[in-house]
């Protein structure tokens, strides 16, 4: 499996560790930078490229995932999620890494380099890469709604449970 990597200065050391770990465990890491420390670098430059790499590989039918790393992982996740077709999840535990794959079929994981030890971060990535998507109908439906919105910009219809009862509508209540 090919694994695209991107980070900012806060994730540089962890990215270097992860690159070696991935190689040692039979993955093909693709490093989108940065390659030297710059406290003023901008994470979108690198994380967008990592996510784009995953999207391009997957369109070509290749087995590909991504990892983006920053101080908290929040901005990196936001950037990766701007790439059409990419679902990036922020992992802060083994459980969130597992659920990102099982329920959301995320192709990119984001981790906070200042939030976790190297051992924990490596374990989150390991779990993420090893966990398959469940394929459950409800998860497929939800992912489909997100994908449809991404393509059309049309909101999915509200379910019956989101409709106010007739009595509340007649009274003009916002409850």
What are the SSEs and their pairings?
Elements: E1 2-7, H1 12-24, E2 28-31, H2 43-59, E3 64-70, H3 74-80, E4 88-90, H4 94-102, E5 108-112, H5 118-130, H6 137-152, H7 166-171
Parallel strand pairs: 1-2, 1-3, 3-5, 4-5
Helix pairs in contact: 2-3, 4-5
Describe this structure in words.
Helix 2 (43-59) packs across helix 3 and helix 4 packs parallel to helix 5. With 175 residues, the protein is α/β, with parallel strands linked by helices. A five-stranded parallel sheet has the order 2-1-3-5-4, sandwiched between helices. The chain contains seven helices and five strands; from the N terminus they run E-H-E-H-E-H-E-H-E-H-H-H.
Largest sheet: 5 strands, parallel
Q: Percent range for helical residues?
A: 40-55%
Strand pairing plus helix content: what structural class? alpha/beta
Number of helices: 7
Task: Please describe the structure with a list of short key phrases separated by commas or semicolons.
175 residues, alpha/beta, five-stranded parallel beta sheet, 7 helices
Q: What's this entry about, in short?
A:
The chain is of the alpha/beta class and 175 residues long. The chain contains seven helices and five strands. The model has no long low-confidence stretch (mean pLDDT 94).
């Amino acid at each position: 499996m090919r694994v695209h990597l991107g980070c900012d200065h806060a994730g540089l050391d962890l990215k270097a560790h992860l690159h070696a770990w991935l190689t040692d465990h039979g993955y093909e890491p693709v490093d989108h930078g940065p390659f030297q420390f710059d406290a003023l670098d901008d994470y979108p430059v690198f994380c967008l490229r990592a996510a784009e790499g995953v999207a391009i590989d997957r369109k070509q039918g290749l087995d590909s995932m991504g990892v983006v790393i920053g101080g908290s992982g929040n901005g990196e996740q936001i950037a990766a999620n701007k790439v059409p077709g990419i679902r990036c999840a922020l992992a802060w535990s083994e459980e969130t890494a597992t659920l990102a794959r099982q329920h959301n079929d995320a192709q990119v994981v984001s981790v906070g380099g200042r939030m976790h030890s190297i051992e924990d971060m490596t374990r989150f990535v390991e779990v993420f890469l090893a966990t398959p998507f469940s394929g459950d109908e409800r998860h497929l439906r939800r992912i489909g709604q997100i994908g449809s919105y991404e393509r059309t910009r049309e909101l999915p219809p509200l379910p019956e449970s989101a409709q106010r009862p007739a009595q509340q509508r007649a009274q003009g209540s916002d409850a």
